[in-house]
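Deadline looming. Please check this record:
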Amino acid sequence: MLFSVDFGIIGVDFERKGKAAMLITRETDYALRTIRALSGGERMTVAQICEKEHIPVPFTYKILKKLTGADIVAVTRGAGGGYRLSADLGSLTLWDVVQVTEEECVLMECMLPGHICEHNCEHLLCHLNKELERVQQVLTAELSRYSLAEILSRE
């Protein structure tokens, strides 16, 4: 299944085929849209977020739980409660959100810490792995390049 995100500065398409395959999944896309909904500074209910960004309610609860756990969003319970952004958009990047929403932030399983490749000698990394590590570094740098404040100010 192909997922796509275009968040103002970069657009990325990735196919998710395996557990360790990365990247911009629907969950990350919805998390970014949730942050965008809250970027105005006002407290919002789940229903308001979903309506504003066209996100399914069950998915939004799951995303808000992760964003709250990462101190990106704060929740106020009770009458007049809701969610508000608690992180500084000036220091929050696309990469930060990817790390919160994705289990494994790597291009391939062989890049996971401690993974032993069954196709190569333990002592030698294959040339493909070295190139993928380079690509991973470039991708991480690009996703970290701009703050969400910079990205959202271009809308």
Q: What stands out?
A: The helical segments are 26-38, 46-53, 57-69, 94-101, 127-144, 148-152. The CA atoms of residues 31 and 112 lie 24 Å apart. The radius of gyration is 17 Å.
